Amino acid sequence: MTFTPRSPSDVAALRRAAGRGSIEGVSVSDRRLEDLATLRRVRDRIDREYDQPLDVEALARDAFMSAGHLSRLFKQAFGESPYSYLMTRRIERAMALLRRGDMSVTEVCFAVGFSSLGTFSTRFTELVGVPPSVYRQQADGVMAGIPPCVSKQVTRPIRQKQAKREGQTPS
What we know:
Elements: H1 8-20, E1 22-23, E2 26-27, H2 28-48, H3 56-62, H4 67-78, H5 82-100, H6 105-111, H7 117-128, H8 132-139, H9 148-154, H10 160-166
Antiparallel strand pairs: 1-2
Helix pairs in contact: 2-5, 3-4
């Protein structure tokens, strides 16, 4: 039986049920499936609204969870925290805009949802390995003729620490 929570009290009932195994036909596995569906909705919202001011507290509130619980479940399901996922999405989009070459670094910064050029440059350098201005110069014409779906996979940012662990060299 699938139960879709409609209010915070429904979510609370599901969580209480998890501790006892089941309540009114809702099993722990049903709760896990509901949590995964909620996490997919959170991830989809981040993908859709990456350029808006999003924070984990607001995402958690809309998912009827605490920020800590959302972060824990999100990391278990997707391998990174909601904040990290948001930053990765923003930087991926920034990389695409910088490759196009018709916007300045400052315009790209604000277009992808950052409110500070310094924070944008720091996060970009952390994920990509070079500052946005250098990336823009290097990427000029490099991906010409390559379909966007392929270039997105090829240019996906890898965190510096992760790249070192996996023995990869960041692009």
